[in-house]
Amino acid sequence: MDRSDIRDAIQLFQYSRTAAGGGRAADVVRTLWRLEAANEIGFADRGAARHHGGWKEGREGPDLQLGINYIKSIPAAERLGALSLLLVHEGTHAAVDFTRLLDEMAARVLAIHYYRELAGPGVFNEANDPPRPGKPFGIVRIAAGRFESFRKQSDALRREQLVDYILSIKTYRKSSYVDAQWVVDHISLWGGLVNRLPATKGTYVRALAQSADRYHVVRILDILESINNRADWDAMMAAEKRLPRLQLALDDLTTDRRLSDRIAALQRRWGVTLIEMPPVRR
Questions:
Q1: DSSP secondary structure code for residue 74 in this structure
Q2: Helix H or strand E encompassing 109
Q3: Fewer CB within a 10 Å sphere, N or C end of the chain?
Q4: Are the CB atoms for 55 and 90 separated by under 8 Å?
Q5: How does 112-137 read in b/e, with b if 16+ C-beta sit within 10 Å?
Q6: pLDDT (tens digit per residue) in 62-121
Q7: Quick one: CA torsion of 251, 256, 258, 261, rounded to 10 degrees?
């Protein structure tokens, strides 16, 4: 594949139904053409095929890199679609200016919608009309089964659990992506706590327990009280991992009678020790 394939892949997305739907897609198309014109998109050896691509402004070489080993691992008939899908994901990173986790979610949401189109009806390849030797002609499609991670993300998005999918990846559980303020700001979104998976709740609890802000720590109780069965409780606590830090955080709440009673109720219900000292009644 060469630079002409990059241009064809951008144009494939540009004339897709996903792009025609408006919203962020138009910004991504403009960003991709701008980067292509500046020679800031290119193939690179990023190691194993599992390393698909990456965006980093100002790095040596192209800012938007496409993993050549990944592209070569895709059957020839599907490479243009896979390349176009990768460009949409990385191009969204280049186009938006969100906090880090929301940036990742935005990049995945647009790519998921495009994946559904490529894996379904497909997209007509306007760049190869009329046909050119060695270039795919007609409708470009990808095999849904070959892109298992996108299938899982698509299912998660339908359930409003894309955030859970992303936080199942170790990289995105770091404090640089999720801190106490981020949790408080987003705890009610995407179906709220009732729709969060236990592991995500554990990640939320771990982030909140690092805060010295009482308001943040109280939100821990909201999360703990949202659990309704032992299996989910155990899964949440396994994801939280730092029980001593959680106990220390909750200790600070025991001077308040109402909050102390909530902690005591949780301890009785689950047979656990959530604080270092018994709740103080006042």
A1: S
A2: helix 100-119
A3: C
A4: yes
A5: bbbbbbbbeebbebebbeeeeeeebe
A6: 999 999 999 999 999 999 999 999 999 999 999 988 778 998 999 999 999 999 999 999
A7: 40
